[in-house]
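User: For documentation purposes, I need each entry recorded in a consistent format: the amino acid sequence on its own, followed directly by the corresponding structure tokens. There are two entries in this batch. Please keep commentary to a minimum and don't merge the entries.

Assistant: Recorded as requested. Entry 1:
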Amino acid sequence: MVKGKKIQVFLETEFNISDKNSSSENINHEYCSYCYKSFNTKELWCKECDPFKMIEGWTSGNDELDKLIKDTIYDARYNGNRLVEWVPFDRFENIVQIGEGGFAKVYSAMWIDGKAEYYKQDDGNWKKRALKPIKVALKRLNGSQNMSAEYLNELKIHLKFCQSTIISLKFYGITKDPETKDFMIILQFADEGNLRNILSKKFNNLLWKDKIRYLHRMISNLRVLHYLGYFHKDLHSGNVLQRDGRSYISDFGLSGLTNKQKSDDKIYGVLPYVAPEVLNREPYTLSSDIYSFGVIMTESSSGKPPFYNRKHDVSLVLDICDELRPEFGKGTPEIYKELAYKCMNANSSQRPTADELYKLIVFWMYSTEGKESYQESEKFGYKGKEIKIMFEEADKEIPNISTSYKKDHDAIYINRIFTFNNLIKPVNIIALYLDDEENSIDNQDSQLVYLNVSSSLLQSKVDDTN
């Protein structure tokens, strides 16, 4: 081991890189803890490795979290201002709770100082821009006082995701509530709420090209996450946030590496969005996220959350594993339904990948927006102008779709933990479409008929859920 690395190990073990219980003020360090170059200073990092002078003088109280934050400050020399800050809780005001899930609460707040931004001057030194207050979201990690491996994992995945794409909500930093001792993630504020709220309040004002644009941003995010080797495991309309007319996947609390999975028999998530193979306690895969995306496609079509009118219990689980899928809105184009059904195929190996979906939805998006170079271009069996006509025709039905509904008291759309035993094997779906007019029920213009399920049985199941 080289001498510099010996010094680094000593500093990490003796001073924990967070200055906790250390007397660094009286110590002149011989080597920088990052670049290992010799220097004579009271600080742990040389000027080149800490140009923003943000690494010293604070601690979160957790050594691993300190190192995570300090590493981003160190790396910010190369990737612009993508650093994560430790922010004292008293630098926030007007804190108001705006949401709650199964494992976290979300607040809006005014960050008095705003994000630290620096620019490099001609002399090579970095200068901080003037402070500007900004509105942010604070996500409280319930029970995170000791920052378990699970919570640290969420931070690392979220950070890696944000550093890998510009199409994500910004991850500003971490703070800690001095009363509860819970850690909180500081995020860019999504001023339009989540997709579920948008569909509930603005559905009849959304054209199909608007919804396709939302789907495009969603699948763009999911594509990046899958490329990094992670699955989301908790994709639903409440976790798709909206800002400036764009969609962003959020909440990486259940996310993980595809090659590392828990061996327990518990199922986590919002039940209607969980893939049938996962309900059957089979391993979660990237295609399980695709199933959830397909369910969101049905919700975007109908304006209603999936299975809103029945209990989210083992009976629903059995029906999902058997053959039941959420409804579509009246007038939904056939090509859209076909794609959603492919995403929700009971055979996970037959679902499209995020990359395949991205390429198809990009074609749909530019076609419906009238981009000239796409109109005569033919992909996936249709020309762009044909795609445009299909969705514009479907726009005519939007005013006729009612989004009012009565939700069953036990239809629950927050994360929960489930344990199911002895479920039936998911049915491999092969679909035919019933006649739109004869089988229209509650704005549903089509239902799946499975080759191993009689139409009369299917009809009884539809009646039970409406």
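Entry 2:
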Amino acid sequence: MFNPFYLYSSSILIVLGVYQLNWSNLFPKMSSGLLVFLVMTVILSAYLGFLSQKQLTKLVDNTGNNIPRNISSSKSNFSITSRLLWIITLLIWIGYIIEFFYVGKIPVIEYIIGRQYDYRTFGIPTFHVLIVTADAFFAVFLSFLFFKLKKIYLLIQYIICLIPSFLIYSRFLMLEIVLCSFFVFLVISKKIKWKSWVLVALCVFILLYGFGLIGNVRSENQTNQTKNPFDSSLIMEIGGATNSFKNLPISKSFFWSYIYIASPLANLQETVNKTKKVDYQAKGLIGFVNNNFVFDFISKRVNGILGIQDKNISQISPLLTAGTVYSKSFVYLKWVGLVLMFLFIIVVNMIILFILRKSVFLIPALAILDTIMIFNLFQNMLIYSGLSFQLIYPLIIQLFLKGRKLTVDGQTI
């Protein structure tokens, strides 16, 4: 069972291990201060995972892995029918269709016909956040229902909810939905045979290799070079590949994965090295809170209202922009900012798990928290509304249910 506290610790340790390979000349040497901080957070988070694991496992067993059983209708239950699920799916699609008419374009078609279009500008302000996050959360919930009830129409609805991420050309949206669904599967499955883990490891290996090949094609397409998916010379030049990596008897396409996994930590170290002054005045503190703890679609508007200029992190390269969940907090308050950010991560996880401890939405929420812990390696996903705002929906629905059990087609969940 994937405890988000354990996942935080393991993901940080993996990135630290990858960073120590020293395959890029661009990466600064890790300072003892940053290393001690990260190791301490790993230890503390692992300890919290140890304290919560038994109770969390018990809660998951009681809310998500019980055997479905037929029940009679009761006022104490809230019933969801397949018809209602189809209606929700239709409403989500209507929301996207409205956006397509508003923008006048479908991003994936623009890309196919070769027109320049920034998919990040797609959508109706604010409404886009609501429709995308509703789609993502609903898809994750459908995956939970499918793994639990094994009904094919749930899988069909899940696939239908994935299609918009392709149409708006949002690879991250598709990736986060699939990864959340994967965590749902792992939590529900509980015990997975070692052969399955070998298969997962093999899939990860293939994905990392494929990621490199796709990266080669895309980068050569942008520079109008001959498209050779096995030529990684461009990324090795951009990423400053060391001779030790060049001499390794492995495909150089793996350098893409190395750079994307380790460069955020390199940018964090670069930020630590180059941040000299911080603003402890009221406006600086407000800027820290607003730009590190508040949903991004809200914080941008608050910045404009209060005249706050968001701060940028230091980067080892203009092309490598990610900086982990911690970089921006360091820019604002240095080491105090890092400590407060770690506490924020812990508190958010605790609050969500506590509120939903007896909810049918515990497993989907747990999967979303796990996904946030993974993507926090790249940037602050707790304020990235495209992912973290999904957690608002189960909290609201749980208030509406008021302790009532949820039934789907006459079966308890």
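Summary note for entry 2:
The beta strands are 77-80, 405-408, 411-412.
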